[in-house]
Design a protein that fits this description.
Helix content: under 10%
Number of helices: 1
Oligomer: single chain
Number of strands: 11
Low-confidence stretches: 227-248
Amino acid sequence: LEYKALRPIINKRQSFVNDFSTNVYDIYAKGTYKINTKNKVSLLVFHSRDSYMFEMNEKDRNSFKWHNLIVNGQWDRQLPAGLGVRFNLTYNCFGNVQSQQVGEISWSDCASSNFIMHEFTGNVQFSKSLSKKTTSKFGVRVKYETFSQTGTQNDGMLQTTINGQMEWKEPDMYDIRLSGRLNVCLSQARRAPQVMVDPDISFMWRQYFGRTAGMEVTLDCVTQYYHTLEGIPMGTRSGNIDPTVVSYICEKEGKTAANAA
């Protein structure tokens, strides 16, 4: 709508976008079934697709398409002695296609770039109430990602995270959380496989002053694994390994942030 309103104002002699069209949709569904008082399962499905097409004054036609599919299954179970466990499996598929048609060249022969990522995640989390004010959580998460782009083979990354958390909570008074994680990352780039081990720590203290005021202090020291995606088409996540640069190792960045509010 904004483009149609501004188009008459733009000098027609300038090269600009013509015949802009788009097709965007999102589909989301979630279901939960309570088997009994100790078991509950749920399933979530999300799918989205974005498609944009336009041509320039010189009749260059361009196409940009993105798609994302997420499927998540979860099982919550209460075990004896107040121990709870949550099993979680997730599949995530993300991809994009960018094409350019010049003159009379058909779409099948035009220049194009394809990128696709498959991500599989398994997570097991345990929780235990140690007292009325103290709760502990611990678990393991394993994530495997594969990447491929036009003209390249698959590369990927395997990451395992062991985590634990302690929480001390008094309603309307305070909420304190201390958590730690140990990350083990295996980058499977063909020419430079590597293994990295890094710890994380997070702290949160929330203090309440009655029912209308409060204060929160947080401290996070975390590590992220990535490869900068220079020259990759728009729509690609900046946290992925660049599959076209197989000679480079996966990068990592440590971040420390403190906040008070």
